[in-house]
Amino acid sequence: MLYWLIQHQAPFFEKLHGVSTGDSRVFLTGRTAVAAIVSFLLAWWFGPAAIHWLKGRFRERIDSASQRLNELHAAKQATPTMGGLFLVAAILGTTLLCGDLQNVFVQQAFVLLLATAVIGGIDDWVKIRTRRRGLSVRQKLAGQLAVAGLIGVWLYVVQRDHPDGLQLFVPFSSWSMALGGLYITWAMFVMVGASNGVNLTDGLDGLAGGCLVFAGSAFLVLCYLSGHRLFAEYLSIPHIVGAGELSVVFGAMVGSLLGFLWYNCFPAAVFMGDTGSLPLGAFLGYGALVIRQEFLLVVIGGIFVIETLSVMAQVASFKLTGKRVLACSPLHNHYLFRGEHEARIVVRFWIVSALLALLAVASLKFQ
Known about the structure:
By secondary structure, the chain is mostly helical. It has one domain. The chain has a two-stranded antiparallel sheet. Strand 1 and strand 2 form a beta hairpin.
């Protein structure tokens, strides 16, 4: 809507077509800032009403496989969950307001966020309404792969028209590999992996949300740079026409997360649930795929990667040796079991996440 109004009420934009080096002639920087502010205000302003609504319908049930972990989290029993509903709603609503809805990347992001939020919502609903701990691993993975496959094929059709759209680039080198049809499988792996990585990290008040703020901010910058011809040429990164518009969606994501953290910080008044963690994680992976920066995703989402690897190491160690390498996985639970205060763990993870995001963006200059 905002995009349309600016475009049709400012004739002088026609004069900018010949001199603009970005992929949007309609105040991309301004719309990104507006998106962040509007989404924050939506999440913050409607947060209390949303929490009140969730409190009467969806309350967290503390029932993990670890009895000690259940005891440590006992005070969180019956806390409203599925806060991802108003988190994702703020992102999508702001995108409708500030984004260019004719941009194919915005369309794909919209579908991805909505579809994965539905999967996460079903998973949360099963956990709350039944005695099960959500969907089975196979059921959840099947849903994620179906959505990722759809977006992967759609993205492949779009990216094959870009000179670098199907190339896999290795940072700090001139080496790249053409993925061809394997791009679809690769895209599914990246989106599903990122989605589950964020989901595993969402175990302490504000942990996943805070780390997502830094990761989302980094991708906001990266998408903006990738969509700008001069910046992309200067930094020697792939110039993906249209990718800059994703900075509006990432701006909306960052703003809504800040509004959500207002209520999700320790002690949390609401939890994100899979309704929020699955779509936001998948969107990070999607952003990396569009701008061909999958390896930087590993750095930016370093906390999510470490949390995932800690679970894999724990399972592998127990199956092979009968011993556990951590007191409890994922990694944040290990520190919780060692007696660290939850708020201290979260802030330290935030610090690491912020440093990794800065490192990833700064590394562009050295590539």
